[in-house]
Structure formats: structure tokens, C-alpha cells
Amino acid sequence: MNICVFGDSITWGAHDFEKGGWVERLKSYCLENHNGVNVYNLGIPGNTTEDLLKRFENEAKTREPKVVIFAIGINDSLYMQTKGDYNVSLDKFKDNLSKLIEIARTITNTIVFIGLIRVDESKTTPRPRGIPGRYYKNESINRYDSVIKEFCERNNFDHIDTGEVINIEDLEDGLHPNSRGHEKMFKVIKSAIEKFLSK
Asked: How would you label 2-41 residue by residue, b for 16+ Cβ within 10 Å and e otherwise?
């Protein structure tokens, strides 16, 4: 059974210098405990839903996953200079989610969404600190996370809420979890998808 995890730099494992991120921890767990379950880390740093749409179908169909996990949206919610001028607008974000699901359903019926974590705004407004650039704010992240939750409720998809899992001390640079944070995410996500691992 193949599990494909699509996302951004947090999915990719940025700043987990011990084990390479929550997805790599999930991969190791499955190798040790679930024979025949293969986890593919398809996170790319900086990706938004716009970026993912360009590669999702080819990358998913090649691997024929039984389970597709989406962990994306925080880069959609950032703005460059003007508050509200999001990297990907809310309307476009909703449209992108619908398109991703339309494609995913041609591959599998088991689709899971990971909720968005919150950031340390003292380090992310802007990021990097002191240099005009990308602004990650929890108010904006909350809006996008709410869209994901509502989308899952409407379509009866599993949603794993990580909004309260990561604390400020679990963030390496204000945005990405450190090794402790990735371990926390792994434990919550592993528990939530365990039901799929033995099918």
C-alpha cells in the first residue's frame, strides 16, 4: 500500500535535524511496524496549492497511492506587503482544493487533510525578520485553515487538526517546527491514520 504526502517545506521536513520531519518519521514507523506500507514524501519547500496543482496528477498517478495526504496552505496564506493581498486568494484557494480533490478521487477514495500550524509572529512579520518580504500571520492562517476544515466537513474527508499541537517553543525559526515539533506532529498524524495502515 502506498501513501503519498503532498505539501510544502514543513511536509518536506525543514529544520528537523534529527530525523528529517514528520513524514520521514511516519515512513520509518511504517517500515518497522506495517509491512508493505510505503510512504512517499512529496513536499516541496515554498509550494502553494497553485504549485501543487501543476504536479499533483503526474506524481500521484505514478505512485498509485491508496491514501493521499494533503498538508498544504500556509504559503497560500502569506502576503508580501499589503495585508489581505494573499499569495493565493481565498477564492482561488477554495477552487484549487476542489480541483485537487477532483483529481485525487480518480486515484483513491481515501483522502486526508492536515490542518495548518500556527507561527511565532515575532519572527514571521516579516520573515526573515527586519527585511521587507513575506508576512505569515496567524489571523490569515486561521482563515485558510477554516477553509480546509469546512472543505473536509462538506466532503466527508478526514481532517487532522494540528493548530494546537505546535507551541512557539516547538518552532525553529518562527515558521517551521524543530525536531520536537515534528515529533509531536508525527504522533498526532500517526494516531489519526493508523486505521488505514492495516487495511
From this structure: bbbbbbbbbbbbbbbeeebbbbbbbbebbeeebeebebbb
Cβ burial of 151 (10 Å; 0-12, 13-18, 19+) is: middle
**Could you give the number of structural domains in the chain?**
1
DSSP 161-173: --TTT--GGGBSS
65-93 pLDDT, tens per residue?
A: 999 999 999 999 999 877 778 999 999 99
Contacts 24+ apart (CB under 8 A), 53-57: 53/96, 53/99, 53/100, 56/6, 56/100, 56/103, 56/104, 57/103
> What is the domain-level CATH number for residue 115?
3.40.50.1110
Strands 67-71 and 38-43: unpaired
What pLDDT digit, counting tens, does each position of 121-146 carry? 999 998 877 667 889 999 999 999 99
HSE-CB at 142 with a 13 A cutoff on CA atoms is 4
Give the domain extent around 69.
Answer: 2-197
Helix (H) or strand (E) holding 67: strand 67-71
Query: Taking the chain, what is the end-to-end CA distance rounded to the nearest angstrom?
Result: 9
Prediction pTM value: 0.96
What are residue 114's phi and psi, to 5 degrees? Answer: -95, 130
| All cell numbers assigned to 96 | 484549487
